[in-house]
Design a protein that fits this description.
heterodimer, A: alpha+beta, 4-stranded mixed sheet, 12 helices, elongated, B: alpha+beta, 5-stranded antiparallel sheet
């Protein structure tokens, strides 16, 4: 029994350790000369605003570069894709050194998730274009190349970023495209808001972006427009009915109105003639006049005036009471 | 006779071209902003704004921060508020190995005209921060 318990506990521990302590690996080759140290450092970037932040604490792994320029570094990585920075330093520089721009640029960015393998093969220069490993890194390269291209027109950059946000298969690359956006007009903001919906709410890189774009996709105008349309429909139909009611009253004589109400109550021409003490031919003449005035040709069509007639009769009876 | 007139016309054109070039060069002004701030465990917040005229062909900038302790944050933004350059250095607590260093240099072709802003913020920082911005304006 004790043996089984031990085995179960050992199995659980193994499961937990294998899921928690997963790693990604980056390997590559670079020919670095004299002023550069034969070391490579990997920093974790938890937030896009920290992409150019330098801190010793953010370094999560490091490794040596051998005499042939090869290196392999294993880094702790979560199941969800995260952003990392790989950097090299020159002799005499602190480990936390970031050189941006120019021929001495010392870093590249990459995206990695647990168990993923990333490659970096370069000559003597440190270039973003030399990183590879999955679609995510291709998209990241494309994005950074666009953002850092000074020769591109600003509108072209904006459209390219919107396109990236809406089409990149990598969520992190897509969110980074949004992070880099600037000076968007309302139409462009709407496009971004529509694209933001496709990203997982739990993506840590999106928290700031979701605040900006998910709330900016305002439902209040939608509700207001719907309410306004509904009100317009109600008022319109009411006005239409009122107009028909007055039309009925205006077009038909009191006798015809009387006959209409009797027809609606299901009386035949003969019954109407008896009730009103008139000839049946007179009733028929009245009915024909009613049909031509209301542009209808059957009793069935007359039923649509039932409510109006009822309303009018109430109004008429009220008026009569007032007169009395 | 005809060839004389032809040469006269050509000389006139050359002279005018030289004059236009001279005026353009003479009319252009060079602006340069530079400073080195010594940080001695202090905190500061500084904003430097400068105007870039329309048609300015290029702008060079270089930012450099060397830190033993504390934090330094520097960001250069264009008139549209787009971040064009900058970095943050965080050295938490004394005794961290070797401090930190951030450096950025770049040339921007035809920078966006308007008011650019360089913002520097330091928190309990020991070290130095320097910047150099240079551009030609017509």
């Amino acid at each position: 029994m004790r043996k089984i318990t031990f085995l179960v506990l050992y199995g659980m521990l193994w499961c937990v350790s294998s899921t928690c302590a997963q790693e990604a690996e980056i390997s590559g080759r670079i020919q670095l000369h004299a002023p550069w140290l034969k070391k490579v450092y990997i920093s974790s970037i938890p937030d896009f605003n920290q992409m150019f932040a330098v801190s010793y604490k953010s370094i999560v792994a490091s490794g040596d570069i051998d005499t042939n320029g090869n290196f392999t570094v294993r880094l702790p990585a979560a199941a969800q894709e995260s952003l990392y920075r790989l950097h090299f330093i020159r002799q005499g520089d602190p480990v936390s050194t970031l050189i941006i721009g120019g021929r001495e640029e010392n870093h590249v960015f990459f995206l990695a998730r647990a168990t993923q393998h990333i490659w970096y093969h370069s000559d003597t220069l440190i270039r973003q274009a030399d990183i590879s490993g999955g679609n995510a890194n291709e998209e990241l390269k494309k994005l950074l190349a666009t953002v850092n291209n000074d020769t591109l027109n600003r509108e072209t950059i904006k459209n390219s970023l919107i396109n990236g946000a809406c089409t990149f298969s990598s969520e992190t690359a897509g969110l980074m495209a949004i992070h880099y956006m600037f000076g968007l007009n309302n139409r462009q903001k709407d496009s971004v808001s529509r694209c933001v919906v496709r990203f997982s709410k739990n993506n840590p890189y999106g928290s700031r972006i979701f605040q900006q774009y998910r709330t900016s996709y305002n439902w209040i105008p939608f509700v207001c427009i719907t309410a306004a349309l509904f009100m317009a429909f109600l008022l319109g139909s009411r006005a239409y009915r009122k107009r028909k009611q007055t039309l009925l009253h205006r077009v038909l004589s009191p006798r015809e109105m009387n006959i209409v109400s009797l027809i609606i109550n299901g009386k035949s021409n003969k019954e109407i003639a008896m009730e009103l003490s008139i000839e049946i031919s007179t009733v028929k003449t009245h009915v024909n006049n009613i049909y031509s005035k209301l542009k209808i040709n059957s009793r069935k069509q007359l039923y649509r005036y039932k409510d109006m007639l009822a309303g009018k009769q109430v109004v008429a009876s009220d008026d009569q009471e007032e007169k009395k | 006779m005809e060839s004389d007139q032809f040469y006269k016309k050509k000389m006139k054109k050359v002279f005018l071209s030289v004059m236009v070039c001279f005026c353009a060069l003479h009319g252009s002004t060079q602006a340069s902003l530079r400073d080195t701030i010594e940080l001695k465990g202090s905190s500061m917040n500084k904003s430097i704004t400068f105007e870039v005229a329309k048609g300015t062909p290029k702008m060079d900038y270089a930012l450099k921060g060397i830190l033993e302790t504390g934090q330094v944050y520097a960001v250069l933004t264009d008139p549209e508020g787009r971040r064009q350059a900058g970095f943050q250095l965080y050295i938490q607590g004394r005794g961290m190995p070797q401090g930190g260093k951030g450096q950025e240099s770049k040339t921007i072709s035809f920078p966006f005209p308007g008011t650019w802003k360089l913002q520097i913020r330091a928190v309990d920082a020991t070290g130095s921060f320097s910047y150099k911005i240079h551009f030609n304006s017509l």
